[in-house]
Amino acid sequence: MNQFTLEARHKSVLIGAVILGVLCLGLTFLFYDDELHSRFWSNYLHNTVFFTGIAFVSLFVLAAFTTAYAGWHTVFKRIWEAYAFFLIPGLVLFLVIIAGIWGHFHHLYHWTNEADVATDRIMLGKSGFLNKYWYTFGTIIIMGTWIFFANKLRSISVEEDLHGTTDYAFHRRIRRWSAAFLPIAGFTSAALIWQWVMSVDAHWYSTLFAWYATASWFVAAMALTIMTLIFLKSRGYYQNVTDEHLHDLGKYMFAFSVFWTYLWFSQYMLIWYGNNGEETIYFRTRLDEYRVLFFGNLLLNFATPFLVLMRNDTKRKFGTLVFASVICFFGHWWDFFLMIKPGVLHTTHEALAHGAEAAADAAHHGGFTAGFTIPGLLEVGTMLGFLGGFLWFALSRLEKAPLTPSNDPYIEESLHHHV
Is GTP-binding one of the keywords (predicted)? Predict the structure, then answer.
């Protein structure tokens, strides 16, 4: 079967997941005792960043493989084309955060408080970049550019299916657009990662952070791709996707889990060795007050995938591959939780502080805080809602074109792929 149809019962499951996510967000907003609704807004930001990043990385990988003359992925490249289109709802989701910045509906970012910025030398020095204008227009323009490239690559790919010729004119166009996108993606994604995630801890910075966050997105994208393909194969689709293709996806998931760990260690070790208070506070806070998150991050995202996927044959067994993919997907969602939540909580404490005693408590807060110290059921439910929305949107796009691009010049190489 080369034409995918999203069955009614699967639509119902995905819509049910979305309803669950909306319900969890609603309960978080109504019942979490915080006048700034920081748990609600941080859950919203966390999942918006995570799933938008998966869409971006899918587009980036598609462009990178095309530019590198890779052909092995061609048989299932429609999956990544469909994932990339989640950039559209991703932009809409970010517009809500942007409206919250302009309307002072939330306090996710300390730099949005102009009074604090005026008296803070560090934030004042960063104010040329960390401001609502840069956040707003940077997000809209850059994500708009990404959406333009996603639509261009997809439209040419579908056109190639319909009117492909032996001179490969359509594929040359795809390669030119892909090559143009790569440098744009490299520079602009770093700028948005700094804005969306790193600036949650406004006093802190790391030159490795954009690489680190992108590697986390990449592993999550590979994990979701594997699970999607195995699900579709179980429904009778993609029978031309073999163990060889899944083996390569498993290798990417394994390799970038190790690469993520390398970036994690490099960032941690260099900041620890430099012993600069402005930088070490990021890890000091997470080590002292978020030990379960901190060490759980390494267990989920390095130890487990390393031990499970190190053997060559485990990347060819569907059960083991799905298990590792679930762990990696959840693990990198956990990773973004750790990147975002402590900074938001600290900013919230400062915003709510009144008097010297409260201000001192804001500078060093300990103990358990629901939805921040560790993900709770509301956080997991919200993630499932976003996941349901992501898959519903992507699978709906998958219905609109043949699953296998029959006129792609690399299709025969992909169909006979062997490693």
Answer: no
Residues ≥6 apart with Cβ < 8 Å to 56: 84, 87, 146, 185, 189, 217
User: CB neighbours of 368 closer than 8 A, spacing ≥ 6?
Assistant: none
The string of DSSP letters for 216-278 reads HHHHHHHHHHHHHHHHHHHTT--TT--HHHHHHHHHHHHHHHHHHHHHHHHHHHHHHHHT-HH
Spatial neighbors of 190 by CB under 8 A, at least 6 apart, are 210
Q: What is the mean pLDDT of the chain?
A: 92
Q: What are phi and psi of 331, to 5 degrees?
A: -60, -40
Supply 234's token pair. 């179980």
Residue-wise pLDDT for 1-31, tens only, equals 789 999 999 999 999 999 999 999 999 999 8
Q: Do residues 160 and 405 lie in contact, with contact meaning Cβ atoms separated by under 8 Å?
A: yes
Handedness of CA 46, 49, 51, 57 (dihedral sign): negative
List the domain boundaries for the chain. 8-408
Give, rounded to a whole angstrom, the gap between the first and last alpha carbons of the chain. Answer: 25
Least confident of 111-125, 144-158, 162-176, 290-304: 162-176
Q: How many angstroms separate the Cα of 35 from the Cα of each of 228, 354, 357, 374? A: 40, 14, 19, 21
pLDDT digits (tens, 9 = 90+) for 302-317: 999 999 999 988 999 9
Cα three-residue angle 183-185-191, rounded to 5 degrees: 110
User: Could you read off the pLDDT of 323-353 as tens digits, one per residue?
Assistant: 999 999 999 999 999 999 999 998 887 776 6
